[in-house]
Amino acid sequence: MELTEAQAKFKADYIRDRGYWVEFNDGLLAYSPEFLQTYLRYAGQPARTGPLGARMRELIYIAIDASATHMFGEGLAIHMRGALASGASPRDIIETLQIATAQGLDSVALGVGILAEEMQAAGHDTAFLQAPLSDEHARLKAAYVAHFGDWPEFCDRLLRFSPGYFEVMTELLAAPAATSALLAVERELIGIALNAALTQMDAAELRLHMTRALRLGAAPADILQVLQLTAHLGIHACVIGVPLMVAAIDARERAARERAA
């Protein structure tokens, strides 16, 4: 696609300001430049006005692009480069990916509550779910609370269903902190992003990480900016769709030229 002088200037200014240009921008610049400019004003507003620095913004983007609910490799590569350029260390990025890895446990957190309800409905004995904690149960609960400072409802059920699994789950959840790359509050902001993302939208986990973040000193403005950044996942409809549309148009025009030849 050939760009007009104005479009070429816009592209050059974009690359100068941001340091990169992605393929879908070419299609939007050619077919809907007004939308591209509107979107860039919208997407840039949180960075211009919010309290989070470039390093933290890039780590948020890494988390939601790496999440098993999204797995967007192109964006992940862009934001890893951006994070490193903004002062993030490789350990910062690895720890962010570890937090995203633990997101898979949401299947268990959601499922054990439903399992308990359906067991009761089917007539299974569920008395063990209300029984006093054994010494081993109490030890495992104390270890979890000491690390995270709270006791989510699913933990109580899972502990009683499978104390061995609960123990290794706690170790997995605590593992990112062992690298000490991120601050505790930064880990919770990443947890907020992962659970607020439109590919996840887990209200219970979102509330849990907001509670923890506020307790650790996050400002409401920090959390609001995380939510705003997470909303940028929506542009991936254009990131994927626009190049495919451009390719289809090019193929149609190429076929027409071949028929005319």
Give a verbal description of the structure.
The protein is built from 14 helices and no strands. The chain is mostly helical. It has a domain at 107-168.
Radius of gyration: 23 Å
The stretches of 5 or more residues where confidence is low (pLDDT under 50) are: none
Largest sheet: none
Tell me the series of helices and strands, N- to C-terminal. HHHHHHHHHHHHHH
Number of strands: 0
How many helices? The count is 14
Distance between the termini: 21 Å
Shape: elongated
Helix content: over 70%
Average pLDDT figure: 93
How much strand content do the residues show? under 5%
Structural class based on helices, strands and sheet pairing: mainly alpha
Question: Any key phrases for this structure?
Answer:
mainly alpha; single chain; 261 residues
Summarize the structure.
The chain is mainly alpha-helical and 261 residues long.
Summarize the topology:
Layout: H1 5-18, H2 23-31, H3 33-49, H4 54-66, H5 73-85, H6 90-101, H7 106-121, H8 135-148, H9 153-161, H10 163-178, H11 184-196, H12 203-215, H13 220-230, H14 236-260
Helix pairs in contact: 2-3, 2-14, 4-5, 4-6, 4-11, 6-10, 7-9, 8-10, 9-10, 11-12, 11-13
